Automatic annotation (TrEMBL):
<feature type="binding site">
    <location>
        <position position="128"/>
    </location>
    <ligand>
        <name>Zn(2+)</name>
    </ligand>
</feature>
<keyword id="KW-0456">Lyase</keyword>
<dbReference type="GO" id="GO:0015976">
    <property type="term" value="P:carbon utilization"/>
</dbReference>
<keyword id="KW-0862">Zinc</keyword>
<feature type="binding site">
    <location>
        <position position="185"/>
    </location>
    <ligand>
        <name>Zn(2+)</name>
    </ligand>
</feature>
<dbReference type="GO" id="GO:0008270">
    <property type="term" value="F:zinc ion binding"/>
</dbReference>
<keyword id="KW-0479">Metal-binding</keyword>
<comment type="similarity">
    <text>Belongs to the beta-class carbonic anhydrase family.</text>
</comment>
<dbReference type="Pfam" id="PF00484">
    <property type="entry name" value="Pro_CA"/>
</dbReference>
<dbReference type="InterPro" id="IPR001765">
    <property type="entry name" value="Carbonic_anhydrase"/>
</dbReference>
<dbReference type="InterPro" id="IPR045066">
    <property type="entry name" value="Beta_CA_cladeB"/>
</dbReference>
<feature type="binding site">
    <location>
        <position position="188"/>
    </location>
    <ligand>
        <name>Zn(2+)</name>
    </ligand>
</feature>
<comment type="function">
    <text>Reversible hydration of carbon dioxide.</text>
</comment>
<protein>
    <recommendedName>
        <fullName>Carbonic anhydrase</fullName>
        <ecNumber>4.2.1.1</ecNumber>
    </recommendedName>
</protein>
<dbReference type="InterPro" id="IPR015892">
    <property type="entry name" value="Carbonic_anhydrase_CS"/>
</dbReference>
<dbReference type="InterPro" id="IPR036874">
    <property type="entry name" value="Carbonic_anhydrase_sf"/>
</dbReference>
<dbReference type="GO" id="GO:0004089">
    <property type="term" value="F:carbonate dehydratase activity"/>
</dbReference>
């Protein structure tokens, strides 16, 4: 698999180099693992428009004139979307800027990264578009092995395979990350869905099935904060479920072993994007803690 990924990476880099130079060369080919891949086939098809029609390729350069030329209403809709509203055009510029200012300016570092990764963090964050760990915590490529899901939940080991448990297995057993950070956040829609679930509600959805992993957090929230407003209950549950996820990490035998040995640390983080603050804490797990418990929270800080 690694050679396949490597080949795909080389193909991607080759294509990106071509794009960066501004050379649009349709019709080339590339040989990968004995297979001759034709490049630019799609571009060929659009750079040679049918008689009476205009190339979509050309539209990007002369958008307004071309829109007038199209008579077919359906085609017109497609072209209007290409007329300055294509979100991928912005992404293309961002990528090429990233390439210039990162991959090329710091080529040695990025060539090292191409050989392998040794991240210091495994990060589990919510899929919410406002909660971007790389943006808010400044992770650079190679620094954080990251998985994002609805409500940043960690299912218990007994739950079986999921994208999160698979990512944990790779990060802990193969990459041997020294830190796992679970990042929760304010106004989490997944937690809101969890708190909205009625115990007797039989309606099922993929979202409700997923967030029900944190059902115990909802129940403990209702017990501890049931007299508060629904919004405040949700805020309470966001941290309650986060700590539940930290405890669920310890149900994975290879995580529990490394935490016990002191080679892996478990951390919680809570990003409040209303106040723009970040709270961070560490879950301690060992025998002989105060009160006879094996669990304790320490190193709790609020970054504000
Ligand atoms: Zn969320």
């Amino acid at each position: 698999m690694s050679s396949l990924l490597s080949s795909a990476g080389n193909l991607f880099l080759s294509a990106a180099r071509s794009s960066l130079s501004g050379d649009e060369k349709p019709g080339g080919s590339l040989k990968i693992g004995g297979s001759q891949l034709k490049l630019g086939g799609f571009r060929d098809s659009i750079s040679e428009p049918a008689k009476g029609r205009t190339s979509i390729f050309k539209v990007a350069r002369e958008p307004c004139r071309l829109i007038r030329e199209f008579k077919d209403n359906e085609t017109r809709k497609v072209e209007e979307n290409s007329c300055g509203e294509d979100p991928f055009e912005e992404l293309r510029h961002r990528f090429l800027s990233f390439k210039r200012h990162n991959c090329l300016d710091d080529a040695i570092h990025y060539q090292d990264l191409a050989q392998g990764q040794a991240p210091q963090f495994m990060v589990i964050a919510c899929a919410d578009s406002r909660v971007c760990p790389s943006k808010i915590l400044g992770f650079q490529p190679g620094e954080a092995f990251t998985v994002r899901n609805i409500a940043n939940l960690v299912p218990p080991f007994q739950h079986g395979a999921s994208e999160t448990s698979a990512a944990l297995e790779f990060a802990v057993n193969s990459l041997e990350v020294p830190n796992i950070l679970v990042v929760g956040h304010s106004r989490c829609g997944g937690i809101r869905a969890l708190m909205s679930m009625k115990r007797e509600n039989n309606s099922r959805s993929l979202i409700s099935d997923w967030v029900s992993i944190a059902k115990s957090a909802r129940l403990s929230t209702e017990a501890a904060a049931g007299n508060l407003s629904f919004e405040k209950q949700c805020s309470h549950c966001e941290k309650e479920s986060l700590n539940g996820s930290l405890l669920n990490l310890l149900t994975y035998p290879w995580i529990e072993k490394r935490v016990s040995e002191g080679t892996l640390s478990l951390h919680g983080g809570y990003y409040d994007f209303v106040e723009c603050t970040f709270e961070k804490w560490t879950l301690v797990y060992r025998d002989g803690l105060e009160g006879g418990s094996k669990y304790a929270i320490k190193n709790r800080f609020l970054w504000a």
